[in-house]
Design brief:
Elements (H helix, E strand, L loop, with lengths): L3 H6 L1 H8 L4 H6 L2 H7 L6 H7 L3 E6 L3 E6 L16 E7 L20
Antiparallel strand pairs: 1-2, 1-3
Length: 111
């Protein structure tokens, strides 16, 4: 998450992504893949929720739609996305002047 756009609009996302899994996984994984899994224990989804991010999802038949992260996942690895849809991009709102964020990963150490 070294993108200048991510650093400017979602520094908390960059910080969170830097704490995910091992170095090897971080170098292979994608933000879209992490979102598509809709895993409740994900580090990414709560951060995107805090940022009020939106997801652009597209279908060749029906075109594109935008969904709030809060409406995207509805349970254990169940995303509200049809079998013919694809996550196209993650939309981060522009931060307000004076907005501050921080990231702190809390774990019980058993993983």
């Amino acid at each position: 998450a070294t993108s200048a756009d991510v650093q400017r609009r979602g520094r908390i996302l960059a910080e969170g992504c830097a704490s995910i899994a091992s170095h090897q996984v971080r170098n292979q994984a994608t933000l879209g893949g992490a979102v598509a899994l809709a895993e409740p224990s994900s580090t990414v989804l709560p951060i995107l929720l805090a940022l009020d991010a939106r997801l652009e999802i597209a279908s060749a038949e029906r075109g594109a739609r935008t969904v709030a992260v809060s409406a995207y996942a509805d349970g254990l690895q169940r995303a509200r996305i049809a079998s013919d849809e694809l996550l196209v991009r993650v939309l981060l709102p522009h931060p307000m002047v004076g907005d501050e964020t921080c990231f702190r990963k809390v774990t019980d150490g058993t993983r």
